[in-house]
Specification:
There is one protein chain. By secondary structure, this protein is mainly α. Helix 3 (28-40) runs antiparallel to helix 4 and helix 8 (120-136) packs parallel to helix 10 (157-179). The protein is built from ten helices and no strands.
Length: 181
């Protein structure tokens, strides 16, 4: 099965798509082909590959672990497309990030969240990832809350919506943390 050809020709039928997902989860080499297409393909290939990766991650959150470092390097590049950044951060919402990459993921997400030029979806997904990491690292809660609140007047409604949800979760975590003392 040539993944790049399949992605280039369009989305397969539903039974073919489900079979492909199963094959990707059983054969890491095929999954690697999808990751390579996702990171290096033109926009349409990147989007199709992102959909496949998202579905695979929802079925098996550990499936992308071998590729996370490469994905983080790619989204840190100055010429990284919004589609790759957006979809990589979206994928991070559904997985358990390996401990050795948590610091890098936090740095990337805080960076995306603080930039004026980043697309709103990238910022929204970054908020969610940081909120999840705040469960393990409560020391980032205040920094995250301040950054979100500072950005609110300048952002679009999608940011404001996600910010409201994240701030509610962070407020609960802050109360829980305060009652621990």
């Amino acid at each position: 099965m040539q993944i790049s050809t399949l992605l280039a020709t369009g989305k397969p039928s539903n039974p073919e798509y489900l079979h492909l997902q199963d094959q990707l989860l059983q054969k890491p080499q095929l999954l690697k082909e999808v990751v390579v297409a996702f990171l290096g393909g033109p926009a349409t290939i990147t989007q199709r590959a992102a959909g496949l990766l998202l579905d695979c991650v929802r079925k098996n959150p550990c499936s992308l672990s071998p590729f996370l470092e490469e994905m983080l390097v790619t989204i840190n590049a100055e010429d990284a497309s919004d589609a790759i950044k957006r979809n990589t951060i979206r994928l991070l919402q559904f997985i358990s990030i390996p401990e050795e990459l948590e610091g890098e993921v936090m740095d990337v997400c805080f960076s995306f969240l603080s930039r004026n030029k980043e697309a709103v979806a990238i910022k929204a997904f970054s908020m969610t990832v940081l909120c999840q990491l705040a469960q393990k690292y409560p020391e980032i809660i205040n920094e995250l809350k301040v950054l979100i609140i500072d950005r609110l007047p300048f952002e679009k409604p999608a940011f404001t919506s996600r910010a409201g949800k994240v701030l509610q979760v962070l407020a609960k975590k802050s109360k829980t943390r305060a009652s621990d003392f």
